[in-house]
Amino acid sequence: MDLKRLIAEDLLKIQAVFFRPDEPFTWASGIKSPVYCDNRLTLTSVKVRNDVENGLATLIKEHYPDAEVLMGTSTAGIAHAAITAHLLDLPMGYVRSGSKDHGRQNQIEGKLEKGQKVVVVEDLISTGGSCIEVVNVLREAGADVLGIVSIFTYGMQKGLDRLKEAHVKNVSLTDFDCIANVASETGYIRPEDVSRLLTFRNNPSDESWIGG
Predict the structure, then answer these.
(1) CA distances from 91 to 24, 52, 198 (A)
(2) pLDDT tens-digit profile of 107-139?
(3) Alpha helix locations (H) across 64-156?
(4) What percent of the chain has pLDDT over 70?
(5) CB neighbour burial string for 77-103, b if at least 16 within 10 angstroms, e if fewer
(6) How far apart are CA 36 and CA 19, in angstroms?
(7) Cα 157 to Cα 163: distance, rounded to the nearest angstrom
(8) CB-based contacts of 75, cutoff 8 Å, min separation 6
């Protein structure tokens, strides 16, 4: 079984990715969504956690063989960065969403030398905004950011455009399209729901998929 499908099956099995096209979730922005994602659940399933961390290590070795440091996004990427760094025998740290208001007021936690080649570890990419902010913080600190590895990406056009504009490469273990197709094949959703899910993926503001 290929890695993309393996991770898709894993995420569905533990409901880290949960599809509900007939009863949409509402995001904080007000957008109606047929999918809910919580990749933190991967940490509490030993089998899935092993698949994810070994998968991230594989992607880094394949796409970023020169990586010298892993940096997790706060907070969801921290544990994945730590475990994957352990597997690869690499140092790791993480980037806060903002500077601390006490102590040394660090935003980057962990030792980072200027010029070091860094890979950012993220759990989920939707519009790409938060992970690009992390990349920018690292670049401002003098890091050579090779790119991002993530567990799951929606593949939304807005996110793809933002990553391209910021000159940031992302490699994900699996994506929305793969998970939707696996969910259909395994009876998790109906085959006719796949096109509805992809309509949402292509334009989250388009609510034409609601109600079938």
Answers:
(1) 41, 19, 38
(2) 999 999 999 999 999 999 988 999 999 999 999
(3) 78-88, 129-140
(4) 96
(5) bbbbbbbbbeebebebbbbeeeeeeee
(6) 7
(7) 10
(8) none
Residue 95 backbone dihedrals phi, psi, to 5 degrees: -115, 125
Collapsing DSSP states into helix, strand and coil, what is residue 162? helix
Burial of 139 (0-12, 13-18, 19+ CB in 10 A): middle
- Residues in CB range of 187: below 8 A, 6 or more apart: none
| pTM as predicted | 0.93
The helix or strand, by DSSP H or E, that contains position 32, with its residue range, turns out to be: strand 32-33
Mean pLDDT of 4-20: 96
Calculate the alpha carbon distances from 124 to 129, 178, 199, 211 in Å. Answer: 11, 15, 20, 27
Provide the pairing of β-strand 144-153 with 32-33.
Answer: unpaired
C-alpha distance from residue 99 to each of 95, 107, 113, 134, 189 (Å): 9, 4, 18, 12, 43
Compute the distance between CA of residue 59 and CA of residue 152 in angstroms, rounded to an integer. 13
**Whose CA is closest to 173, among 3, 19, 1, 2?**
3
pLDDT at position 101? 46
**Cβ contact 21:193 at 8 Å:** yes
Mean pLDDT of 52-64: 98
